[in-house]
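agent> Task received from the user: take the single chain below, predict its 3D structure, and emit C-alpha coordinates. No templates, no multimer pairing.
agent> Plan: (1) validate residues, (2) run structure prediction, (3) serialize to C-alpha coordinates, (4) report one or two observations.
agent> Step 1 OK, no nonstandard residues flagged.
tool_call: predict_structure(input=
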Amino acid sequence: MNTGLAFRSLLTKLPRAASWLSRVSLLVLSAALTIGCGGGDSGAGGSGLEAESSGSGEAASIKSYSAADLPEVGEPLRAMDVGRLVISAPTGWTPVGNQPKALVWLCPGEPTELPRIVVNSIPAPVSGFDRVDETNGARFCSKLLVALDRLKGSMVEFPKPLLIGNIVWSRHVRLAKVGDGRAAIQSLQTVRGGRLYSIDLYVKVDGDGDTAYQNAIKKHRDMGYAVAASATFPKDEGGSAPSEEMPAEEMPAEETPAETPAEGSETPAEPAAE
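)
tool_result: status=success, residues=274
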Protein backbone atom coordinates (compact mmCIF):
# COMPACT_ATOMS: atom_id res chain seq x y z
CA MET A 1 0.00 0.00 0.00
CA ASN A 2 2.70 2.48 1.02
CA THR A 3 4.86 1.45 -1.95
CA GLY A 4 2.02 2.15 -4.39
CA LEU A 5 1.37 5.57 -2.95
CA ALA A 6 5.05 6.46 -3.14
CA PHE A 7 5.22 5.33 -6.79
CA ARG A 8 2.19 7.41 -7.77
CA SER A 9 3.65 10.44 -5.95
CA LEU A 10 6.90 10.06 -7.89
CA LEU A 11 5.01 9.95 -11.19
CA THR A 12 3.26 13.21 -10.42
CA LYS A 13 6.61 14.92 -9.66
CA LEU A 14 8.45 13.74 -12.80
CA PRO A 15 7.07 16.42 -15.19
CA ARG A 16 8.06 19.17 -12.79
CA ALA A 17 11.53 17.64 -12.32
CA ALA A 18 12.02 17.36 -16.06
CA SER A 19 10.97 20.99 -16.51
CA TRP A 20 13.43 22.11 -13.83
CA LEU A 21 16.28 20.16 -15.42
CA SER A 22 15.51 21.70 -18.80
CA ARG A 23 15.67 25.20 -17.36
CA VAL A 24 19.03 24.45 -15.70
CA SER A 25 20.41 23.07 -18.97
CA LEU A 26 19.33 26.19 -20.86
CA LEU A 27 20.97 28.45 -18.28
CA VAL A 28 24.26 26.51 -18.49
CA LEU A 29 24.19 26.62 -22.28
CA SER A 30 23.46 30.36 -22.30
CA ALA A 31 26.35 31.08 -19.92
CA ALA A 32 28.73 29.04 -22.05
CA LEU A 33 27.75 30.91 -25.20
CA THR A 34 28.14 34.27 -23.45
CA ILE A 35 31.67 33.41 -22.25
CA GLY A 36 32.64 32.11 -25.67
CA CYS A 37 31.50 35.24 -27.50
CA GLY A 38 33.00 37.72 -25.04
CA GLY A 39 36.36 35.97 -24.45
CA GLY A 40 38.10 37.86 -27.24
CA ASP A 41 37.59 41.20 -25.51
CA SER A 42 40.08 40.36 -22.78
CA GLY A 43 43.00 40.76 -25.18
CA ALA A 44 41.78 44.04 -26.60
CA GLY A 45 42.31 45.87 -23.34
CA GLY A 46 45.90 44.66 -22.85
CA SER A 47 49.04 46.73 -22.73
CA GLY A 48 50.29 48.71 -25.69
CA LEU A 49 53.03 46.20 -26.51
CA GLU A 50 50.55 43.31 -26.44
CA ALA A 51 48.21 45.23 -28.70
CA GLU A 52 51.04 45.86 -31.13
CA SER A 53 51.94 42.20 -31.40
CA SER A 54 48.34 41.09 -31.82
CA GLY A 55 47.61 43.39 -34.75
CA SER A 56 47.85 42.44 -38.40
CA GLY A 57 50.57 43.50 -40.81
CA GLU A 58 54.25 44.32 -40.40
CA ALA A 59 53.77 47.70 -38.70
CA ALA A 60 51.69 46.16 -35.90
CA SER A 61 54.62 43.94 -34.84
CA ILE A 62 57.12 46.77 -34.33
CA LYS A 63 57.72 47.71 -30.70
CA SER A 64 57.77 51.46 -30.12
CA TYR A 65 59.50 53.82 -27.68
CA SER A 66 58.44 57.44 -27.19
CA ALA A 67 61.12 60.10 -26.82
CA ALA A 68 59.20 61.41 -23.78
CA ASP A 69 59.79 58.09 -21.98
CA LEU A 70 63.54 58.02 -22.64
CA PRO A 71 66.40 59.81 -20.83
CA GLU A 72 66.73 63.55 -21.44
CA VAL A 73 69.14 64.83 -24.06
CA GLY A 74 70.92 68.15 -24.44
CA GLU A 75 70.92 70.72 -27.22
CA PRO A 76 71.43 69.43 -30.78
CA LEU A 77 75.04 69.12 -31.92
CA ARG A 78 76.24 70.62 -35.16
CA ALA A 79 75.05 68.79 -38.27
CA MET A 80 77.27 65.84 -39.17
CA ASP A 81 77.91 63.85 -42.33
CA VAL A 82 77.98 66.97 -44.53
CA GLY A 83 74.81 68.32 -42.94
CA ARG A 84 72.79 65.14 -43.28
CA LEU A 85 72.48 64.17 -39.58
CA VAL A 86 71.78 66.04 -36.33
CA ILE A 87 71.70 64.32 -32.94
CA SER A 88 71.76 65.26 -29.26
CA ALA A 89 73.86 63.68 -26.52
CA PRO A 90 72.20 62.32 -23.37
CA THR A 91 72.34 64.77 -20.49
CA GLY A 92 75.69 64.35 -18.75
CA TRP A 93 77.35 62.70 -21.76
CA THR A 94 80.12 64.63 -23.55
CA PRO A 95 80.60 64.65 -27.33
CA VAL A 96 84.13 63.69 -28.35
CA GLY A 97 84.98 64.70 -31.90
CA ASN A 98 87.82 64.09 -34.35
CA GLN A 99 87.53 60.31 -34.18
CA PRO A 100 88.64 58.12 -37.10
CA LYS A 101 85.87 56.04 -38.64
CA ALA A 102 83.24 57.82 -36.53
CA LEU A 103 81.19 61.00 -36.73
CA VAL A 104 81.29 61.47 -32.97
CA TRP A 105 81.68 59.63 -29.69
CA LEU A 106 79.38 60.32 -26.73
CA CYS A 107 80.88 59.52 -23.34
CA PRO A 108 79.63 59.89 -19.73
CA GLY A 109 83.19 59.79 -18.38
CA GLU A 110 86.68 59.26 -19.76
CA PRO A 111 86.65 58.59 -23.51
CA THR A 112 88.92 55.57 -23.03
CA GLU A 113 86.36 53.91 -20.76
CA LEU A 114 83.00 52.24 -21.36
CA PRO A 115 80.10 52.86 -21.74
CA ARG A 116 80.42 54.84 -24.94
CA ILE A 117 78.13 55.66 -27.86
CA VAL A 118 79.70 55.77 -31.32
CA VAL A 119 77.79 57.42 -34.17
CA ASN A 120 78.74 56.70 -37.74
CA SER A 121 77.49 56.64 -41.33
CA ILE A 122 78.50 54.77 -44.49
CA PRO A 123 76.96 54.20 -47.91
CA ALA A 124 74.05 51.83 -47.35
CA PRO A 125 75.12 48.20 -47.89
CA VAL A 126 71.53 47.26 -48.79
CA SER A 127 69.63 48.51 -51.82
CA GLY A 128 65.98 49.42 -52.26
CA PHE A 129 65.64 51.57 -49.13
CA ASP A 130 65.62 55.35 -49.35
CA ARG A 131 64.36 55.38 -45.77
CA VAL A 132 63.24 52.76 -43.25
CA ASP A 133 59.69 52.92 -41.87
CA GLU A 134 56.98 50.71 -40.39
CA THR A 135 56.10 49.22 -43.77
CA ASN A 136 59.56 47.93 -44.65
CA GLY A 137 61.34 47.62 -41.29
CA ALA A 138 61.29 43.82 -41.08
CA ARG A 139 62.45 43.45 -44.68
CA PHE A 140 65.26 45.93 -44.03
CA CYS A 141 66.42 43.90 -41.02
CA SER A 142 66.46 40.70 -43.07
CA LYS A 143 68.58 42.28 -45.81
CA LEU A 144 70.85 43.96 -43.27
CA LEU A 145 71.58 40.61 -41.63
CA VAL A 146 72.83 39.30 -44.97
CA ALA A 147 74.94 42.43 -45.50
CA LEU A 148 76.47 42.06 -42.03
CA ASP A 149 77.38 38.42 -42.59
CA ARG A 150 80.93 38.90 -41.27
CA LEU A 151 79.48 39.95 -37.89
CA LYS A 152 76.84 37.23 -37.74
CA GLY A 153 79.02 34.89 -35.71
CA SER A 154 79.39 37.46 -32.94
CA MET A 155 75.71 38.45 -32.85
CA VAL A 156 73.76 37.34 -29.81
CA GLU A 157 70.58 39.10 -30.94
CA PHE A 158 69.74 39.34 -34.63
CA PRO A 159 68.43 42.56 -36.29
CA LYS A 160 64.88 43.46 -35.29
CA PRO A 161 62.93 46.66 -36.14
CA LEU A 162 62.07 49.17 -33.41
CA LEU A 163 60.18 52.45 -33.68
CA ILE A 164 62.19 54.91 -31.57
CA GLY A 165 60.71 58.38 -31.56
CA ASN A 166 59.42 58.71 -35.11
CA ILE A 167 62.17 56.70 -36.82
CA VAL A 168 62.35 52.95 -37.42
CA TRP A 169 65.73 51.46 -36.53
CA SER A 170 67.14 47.98 -36.83
CA ARG A 171 68.52 46.76 -33.50
CA HIS A 172 71.02 43.97 -33.00
CA VAL A 173 73.47 43.06 -30.24
CA ARG A 174 76.90 41.54 -30.75
CA LEU A 175 79.89 40.72 -28.56
CA ALA A 176 83.42 41.96 -29.17
CA LYS A 177 86.81 42.44 -27.59
CA VAL A 178 87.58 46.10 -27.00
CA GLY A 179 91.11 46.65 -25.76
CA ASP A 180 91.79 44.03 -23.11
CA GLY A 181 88.16 43.57 -22.14
CA ARG A 182 84.93 42.08 -23.39
CA ALA A 183 82.13 44.32 -24.61
CA ALA A 184 78.57 44.07 -25.81
CA ILE A 185 77.50 46.40 -28.60
CA GLN A 186 73.89 47.43 -29.12
CA SER A 187 73.69 48.67 -32.70
CA LEU A 188 70.80 50.81 -33.94
CA GLN A 189 70.82 51.31 -37.71
CA THR A 190 68.60 53.05 -40.23
CA VAL A 191 68.84 54.34 -43.80
CA ARG A 192 68.19 57.85 -45.10
CA GLY A 193 69.10 59.11 -48.55
CA GLY A 194 71.13 56.04 -49.43
CA ARG A 195 73.30 56.13 -46.29
CA LEU A 196 73.35 53.75 -43.33
CA TYR A 197 73.42 55.52 -39.95
CA SER A 198 74.59 53.61 -36.89
CA ILE A 199 74.30 54.46 -33.21
CA ASP A 200 76.39 51.88 -31.38
CA LEU A 201 76.32 51.61 -27.59
CA TYR A 202 79.45 49.92 -26.20
CA VAL A 203 79.21 48.50 -22.67
CA LYS A 204 81.65 46.48 -20.60
CA VAL A 205 80.64 42.89 -19.88
CA ASP A 206 81.77 41.21 -16.67
CA GLY A 207 81.29 37.47 -16.57
CA ASP A 208 80.11 34.89 -19.06
CA GLY A 209 76.72 33.76 -20.29
CA ASP A 210 73.71 35.56 -21.69
CA THR A 211 72.75 37.15 -18.36
CA ALA A 212 76.06 39.02 -18.14
CA TYR A 213 75.74 40.81 -21.47
CA GLN A 214 71.99 41.34 -21.09
CA ASN A 215 72.41 43.08 -17.74
CA ALA A 216 75.24 45.22 -19.10
CA ILE A 217 73.19 46.33 -22.11
CA LYS A 218 70.03 46.92 -20.10
CA LYS A 219 71.82 49.28 -17.71
CA HIS A 220 72.60 51.79 -20.48
CA ARG A 221 70.25 50.68 -23.28
CA ASP A 222 67.96 53.69 -23.11
CA MET A 223 70.86 56.11 -23.58
CA GLY A 224 71.33 54.72 -27.06
CA TYR A 225 67.58 54.89 -27.64
CA ALA A 226 67.52 58.54 -26.53
CA VAL A 227 70.17 59.47 -29.09
CA ALA A 228 68.27 57.58 -31.79
CA ALA A 229 65.04 59.37 -30.85
CA SER A 230 66.79 62.75 -31.12
CA ALA A 231 68.08 62.12 -34.63
CA THR A 232 66.91 64.35 -37.46
CA PHE A 233 67.95 64.38 -41.11
CA PRO A 234 67.81 68.03 -42.28
CA LYS A 235 68.61 67.44 -45.95
CA ASP A 236 66.13 64.60 -46.19
CA GLU A 237 63.42 66.50 -44.30
CA GLY A 238 63.95 69.92 -45.88
CA GLY A 239 64.82 71.57 -42.56
CA SER A 240 67.82 73.54 -41.32
CA ALA A 241 70.61 72.30 -39.07
CA PRO A 242 72.39 74.03 -36.17
CA SER A 243 75.44 75.94 -37.43
CA GLU A 244 77.61 75.64 -34.33
CA GLU A 245 78.74 72.49 -32.59
CA MET A 246 78.60 71.95 -28.86
CA PRO A 247 82.06 71.99 -27.24
CA ALA A 248 83.74 68.64 -27.80
CA GLU A 249 86.90 67.12 -26.39
CA GLU A 250 89.46 65.69 -28.75
CA MET A 251 91.26 62.42 -28.23
CA PRO A 252 94.39 61.17 -30.00
CA ALA A 253 93.63 58.74 -32.80
CA GLU A 254 95.98 56.06 -31.40
CA GLU A 255 93.71 55.69 -28.37
CA THR A 256 90.77 54.66 -30.52
CA PRO A 257 89.89 51.12 -29.38
CA ALA A 258 89.80 48.39 -31.99
CA GLU A 259 86.78 46.15 -32.10
CA THR A 260 87.51 42.45 -32.53
CA PRO A 261 84.47 40.20 -32.91
CA ALA A 262 84.27 37.81 -29.99
CA GLU A 263 83.48 34.17 -30.31
CA GLY A 264 79.72 33.85 -30.25
CA SER A 265 76.99 31.38 -30.99
CA GLU A 266 75.58 31.24 -34.50
CA THR A 267 72.13 31.05 -32.91
CA PRO A 268 71.43 34.27 -30.98
CA ALA A 269 69.73 34.13 -27.61
CA GLU A 270 66.24 35.52 -27.20
CA PRO A 271 66.41 39.23 -26.31
CA ALA A 272 65.92 39.82 -22.61
CA ALA A 273 64.65 43.35 -22.95
CA GLU A 274 64.65 45.62 -25.99
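agent> Step 4: summary for the user.
Helices lie at 2-38, 41-44, 48-54, 137-147, 210-230, 234-237.
agent> Done.
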